[in-house]
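Comment thread on ticket #2218

A.B. wrote:
> Attaching the input chain for the structure job we discussed in standup.
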Amino acid sequence: MFTPNERNPKKIIKAAEIKKGETVFEIGPGTGTLTQALMDAGARVIAIEVDKDLIEPLKNKFGDKITLIHGDVLSDLSVLSDLSDFSFKLVSNIPYNITSAVLERFLTISPRPSRMVLMVQKEVADRITAKPPNMSLLSVVCQIYARCERIAIVKAGAFRPIPKVDSAIIRLDFVHPQNPEKVIAIAKKGFSSKRKQLKSNLGPNFVAKLEQLGLNPKIRAQELTVGDWKRLL
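C.D. wrote:
> Ran it. Output below, let me know if you need it in another format.
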């Protein structure tokens, strides 16, 4: 786990726009740097930590001031059922190796947060917030479910120990899309072979639809907006 310096939690807190008494769910509190900043902002913190060696130090540091859960956010889904009872925000400096899984879990399956503010690898942040002609399946999925914004770049030197890559803070505000699964299913076909033209990936049944929408069938998936994918339904 890379620990950010004190400036980065301040940027995360500002992006989260936390109101006093608001519930915030934190994944992987680690040593509690961001947890403390969330508490100072007035949040009611529910934190889940998979590393059993960190549980006792976190309990000693925060006591009953936070709700601390020892578990795996990706497998202990019963633990998350309590979040269904109220509105919450997900604010976290998540382990980078579970970024995609966390996004999929909290964008597509209830309970969903109203907002996510996450520290992720800069490369991943760029993919999530991409625009044509640099779209990817990840950017399409994220932008279907949320308004996605990169808040700040965090250089590798801001962490201890220093990682090999730069990071970024992103904010995703959840929206209520119509038929997201159907849109994503079409996008998956479109991105099935990135170098091929869209007509080759989607098949002949979609050629006329593309032309009706004023889209060149020779266009590639990465050149379409989220709105274009929705119109292909």
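A.B. wrote:
> Thanks. Noting for the ticket: Residues 180-231 form a domain with the Helicase, Ruva Protein; domain 3 fold (CATH 1.10.8.100).
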